[in-house]
């Protein structure tokens, strides 16, 4: 079975047993979580979308805090001596999808 789930404003295509890196979710490693905002389900023979979807995606937190790659925002205006450098590393949570019910 396949499902499209909305997690923290982003859409993810998931199957049972998938490992995903999603935007940071509160919880510790080993906690189980449920996602009720399912947009589409496909079980081979039929596809449901919209308000006809009655599925829930169950997952388990594998790693509670993972930092992404460093992103640097550099601003400069030529001949003015203006230079500004900002950087950040986005925080992610690794989850494992256990079931789609």
Features:
mainly beta, four-stranded antiparallel beta sheet, 0% helix, elongated
Architecture overview:
By secondary structure, this protein is an all-beta fold. It has one domain (2-65, 92-100). Helices cover 0% and strands 68% of the residues. A 4-stranded antiparallel beta sheet has the order 2-1-5-6, with no helix packed on it. Strands 3-8-7-4 form a 4-stranded antiparallel beta sheet, with no helix packed on it. The mean pLDDT is 96.
Any idea what the shape is?
A: elongated
SSE sequence, one letter per element: EEEEEEEE
Rg, nearest Å: 19 Å
The spatial strand order of the largest sheet comes to: 2-1-5-6
Largest sheet, if any?
A: 4 strands, antiparallel
Number of helices: 0
For the record, the count of structural domains works out to: 1
Report how far apart the termini are: 9 Å
Class inferred from helices and paired strands: mainly beta
Spans with pLDDT under 50 lasting ≥5 residues? none
The portion of residues forming beta strands comes to over 45%
The amount of helix comes to: under 10%
Total beta strands: 8
The pLDDT mean sits at: 96
Provide a quick synopsis of the model:
With 101 residues, the protein is mainly beta. It is 0% helix and 68% strand.
Provide the fold topology.
Layout: E1 2-7, E2 10-15, E3 19-23, E4 32-35, E5 38-42, E6 47-49, E7 57-77, E8 82-100
Antiparallel strand pairs: 1-2, 1-5, 3-8, 4-7, 5-6, 7-8
């Amino acid at each position: 079975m396949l499902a499209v789930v909305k997690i923290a404003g982003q859409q993810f295509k998931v199957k049972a047993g998938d490992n995903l890196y999603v935007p940071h979710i509160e919880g510790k490693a080993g906690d189980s979580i449920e996602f009720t905002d399912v947009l589409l389900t496909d079980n081979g023979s039929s596809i449901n979308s919209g308000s006809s979807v009655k599925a829930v995606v169950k997952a388990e937190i594998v790693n509670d805090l993972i930092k992404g790659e460093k992103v640097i925002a550099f601003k400069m205006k030529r001949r003015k001596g203006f230079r500004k450098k900002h950087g950040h590393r986005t925080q992610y949570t690794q989850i494992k999808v256990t079931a789609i019910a």
